[in-house]
């Protein structure tokens, strides 16, 4: 394994993605090469339809590229079976979404706790992790609130706690501030940055917002499925 691959948390080589829409081929990504080092706080910016979500979903192992190769933490993804991909996703990758994606009938506490049932851990450890992360994101006193009883910023904080409780190495956030007012969006980004610095968690997030981009340690720009 060469040096570059071993220090990269993400290495994408020649990624293309084509969608079939009826009989039309839509080229969403047209040959992306991207290396992301451990600990980066990387922004992906680009206009609507440029391929940001597609790229994040491929790095997050939710979608498969049409061609090209992705390495996550040095592991070559191509040719891995679905079980292995699920394992890699569960142990290394966390996702944060524009729409927060919380479960409406569960409290903030239960939303953070829920994915941890998939992991082998004692009840006590589970409770410790949930409490630790709810406090970390400043939602400790709202732990019994359901998503409907929280503001947008508070919902995104719960979503961040849920992601972080699983101890991911890499967090992918697709326009995490797009449904928030400007000030709240910047607060959420500040929270992500604090986690990035204190836990050395790598973050890759997409955004349209120049103020959000300013906080990144590096910005890559995408247009028409190509980095530019
Ligand atoms: N499931 C799909 N089927 C067909 N075409 C798709 C599909 N998903 C995405 N596309 C197309 O791929 C291209 C890239 O889309 P993508 O959602 O990655 O862009 P984006 O940069 O995230 O845009 P936005 O800023 O609006 O979220 C677009 O042309 C889009 O229409
Ligand atoms: Mg998108």
Sheet having the most strands: 6 strands, mixed
| Radius of gyration from CA coordinates | 18 Å
* List of distinct ligands in this structure: adenosine-5'-triphosphate, magnesium ion
Average pLDDT level: 95
According to CATH, the fold-level topology is Rossmann fold
Read across the widest sheet, the strand sequence of neighbours is 6-7-8-3-9-10
- Strand and helix order: HEEEHEEHEHHHEHEHEE
Query: How far do the termini sit from each other?
Result: 28 Å
- What is the overall number of helices? 8
CATH homologous superfamily name?
P-loop containing nucleotide triphosphate hydrolases
Strand content: 25-35%
Supply the CATH class: Alpha Beta
What portion of residues is helical?
25-40%
Topology:
Elements: H1 3-7, E1 8-21, E2 24-37, E3 41-45, H2 52-59, E4 67-72, E5 75-76, H3 82-92, E6 93-97, H4 108-113, H5 123-136, H6 152-165, E7 170-174, H7 182-199, E8 202-207, H8 210-213, E9 218-223, E10 226-227
Parallel strand pairs: 3-8, 3-9, 6-7, 7-8
Antiparallel strand pairs: 1-2, 1-4, 4-5, 9-10
Helix pairs in contact: 5-6, 6-7
The protein binds adenosine-5'-triphosphate (ATP) and magnesium ion.
């Amino acid at each position: 394994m060469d040096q570059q691959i071993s220090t990269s948390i993400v290495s994408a080589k020649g990624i293309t993605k084509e969608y079939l829409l009826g009989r039309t081929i839509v080229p969403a990504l047209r040959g992306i090469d991207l290396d992301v080092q451990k600990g980066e706080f990387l922004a992906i910016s680009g206009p609507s339809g440029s391929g940001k979500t597609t790229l994040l979903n491929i790095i997050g192992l939710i979608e498969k590229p049409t061609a090209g190769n992705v390495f996550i933490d040095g592991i070559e993804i191509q040719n891995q079976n679905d079980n292995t991909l699920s394992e890699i996703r569960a142990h290394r990758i966390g996702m944060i979404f524009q729409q927060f994606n919380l479960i409406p009938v569960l409290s903030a506490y239960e939303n953070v706790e829920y994915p941890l049932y998939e992991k082998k851990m004692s009840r006590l450890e589970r409770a410790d992790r949930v409490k630790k992360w709810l406090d970390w994101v400043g939602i400790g006193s709202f732990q019994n609130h359901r998503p409907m009883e929280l503001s947008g910023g508070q919902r995104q904080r719960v979503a961040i706690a849920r992601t972080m409780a699983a101890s991911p190495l890499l967090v992918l956030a697709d326009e995490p501030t797009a449904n928030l007012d400007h000030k709240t969006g910047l607060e959420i980004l500040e929270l992500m940055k604090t986690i990035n610095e204190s836990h050395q968690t790598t973050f890759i997030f997409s955004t349209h917002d120049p103020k959000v981009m300013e906080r990144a340690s590096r910005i890559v720009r995408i247009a028409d499925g190509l980095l530019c």
